[in-house]
Amino acid sequence: MSAAILKEAQSSSQASPRMDSAELGETLVEIRDLEKRFSLSGDFLEQLTFEKGRLRRKQEYVHAINGVTLDVKRGEALCVVGESGCGKSTVARTVMGLLKPSGGEVRFDGTRIDNMAPRDLLPYRRRMQMIFQNPYASLNPRMTIQQTLEEPLRFHQPTLKDGEVRDKIEEVMRSVGIDPDWGKRFAHEFSGGQRQRISIARALAVDPEFIVADEPISALDVSIQAQVLNLMMEAQEQRNLTYLFITHDLAVVEHFGTRVAVMYLGTLCELADTRSLFARPRHPYTQALMSAIPRLHDDKPNHIRLEGEVPTPVNLPSGCVFHGRCPHANQRCRTEIPRLIATDTGQVACHAVEEGRID
Amino acid sequence: MALLEVNNLDVRFAMRGGEVRALRDVSFTLERGERLGIVGESGAGKSVAAFTILNLIAKPGYIAGGEIKFDGEVLNTLKPKAMQSIRGNRISMIFQDPMMTLNPVLTIGEQMIECLKAHRRISRKDARAIALHKLNQVFIPSPEKRLDQYPHELSGGMRQRIIIAIALLLDPDIIVADEPTTALDVTIQAEIMELLLLLCEKHNVGLILITHDLGVVSQVTQRTLVMYAGRVIEQGPTREIINDAQHPYTQGLINALPQMATPGSRLNQIRGSMPTLTKIPAGCAFNPRCDFAANICLEKVPAFAHSGNCKVACHMVDAMVAGERWTPIITDANGNGATPTDSHRTEVNA
After folding, report:
1. What is the value of ipTM here, to two decimals?
2. Is residue A350 part of a domain?
């Protein structure tokens, strides 16, 4: 009774004209064979060891990304999912230029940006902005909100007059639902959800085209997550934004993403548009990942259990990185690295799918 | 009689700026072998509730009223020694972060044996055998080897399994699990939850599962308690709460989940955020965020109304059960009550 009335009142959500994967635009960001290694061995002297009376140099690396190729199309929300340690945040940071790739290239709107001098990169930095996971750590505690939001504007557009800066900041604050009168307050005076809105406002202040969001809602409560997701979708519609959205939450991906890239141990296993991926995951890892989502309305979860745990990215397995946990692995999987092959709905890197052993 | 009975629990923290009331009038029961979920957002008081059951509230916190009855005994007035014989023995706890719970300088075996010897007169050899048996129960590969390993040598999922093994070590009646999978990845979370469910069913152990994840609650528990700003606002069978929540907050929480919405559409959101415990609004604590709040909600704390098998602390549900007309403050032109509008976006400044 009461519930029915309430539900009706609450469900006036209007379907929005967000982009469908069928109408994808041109490529905005190209990621080609991206590789990123982090050295574990320290500097040159620390790498030297004595072994059997001889001096040897030993270097060890964490292989965070191993040859990821991805295109981000203009106007879409490309979600990258995977478990901790799969390299999804490293992809985000490398694309933004916060990390230098060890191999491969990143192109923004046709221009290669990964090897640019910092000065030349400036105009591109204005066009791409980042939202971080933890709004408690990503806002400067000594700055007022006004100062936080002014900084990127004054840096990127030094010719703007004070009045113009003020107007712009007021506009972005309003658009994220923060009262412009609160500009004199400090970050600690706001709740987590409000802080994340402020980080979004900071990203929007310079009118970017491309936003990289690294787990922007993971640190927030459920009711606040919905607020922030709605805000990001609104901003996308109004400002024609392109998102690279990093998350581990598949339910969010299903709701938010135009296309999804699934990563495992630094490699891309599957890329498809959201609807087809959720309707028919092809890669065995994607299937396992999907089966693990705790759903509200199924009493008997049919969970595909994987053997073992994610191997360390220091000594990568040979062949397919997933073979040790894959129920369909055979000899070829153990020796040969699978390439991304096109399927009817996207791309998948799996020998078993390629050979038709699994559908 | 229920195995665990919590009656009108009132927990406060004496802070410099005044008293913070972390729990108010919290009552619930747990039968033997029953699985109860406590859901809420951060600051709702769910972890304090769990800690209080085990009498783990440290100064400046204290129990200002109410009682916790376990198997006929009142726990909150027990002497520390007597409480120790229950804690870890008949009621055990699983914490959120497995790295924080395990002692990094002791081997797994050492920690398990220590726990056994604290509660039973038992030889090291027998204790080790029990420890091994429990590790087998939680499906840890090569358990013999694990006993001599240190926590840092194991992965997060493995550590949480060991925590579960330790929680089960003394065959407890109740396990209190505070966000046991929040720090873990989805695939590991699913495994750990499956394991916990399996073991609780097999050994007829009661489970109090504290989480913010409604999906987990719906898969594991039989009954659910929803908390908001230190109070229980709705409780009943999990299925009924998930399918037909009565309290506007519970509904809001469920409807805010992306899986409840059509992909790409606007999510149903609850406006504002949870009040801090020092500034709880008068009347129903949820009233500033509620679309259906009426004048009474601003003045009076709602009592539990019975609606089917659920108990709901909401004036509106109460009025509807009684068949009265309900007029919210926010009404549209036809006087039909609230509809979600742009006002959802404006955050209420507490």
Report:
1. 0.79
2. yes
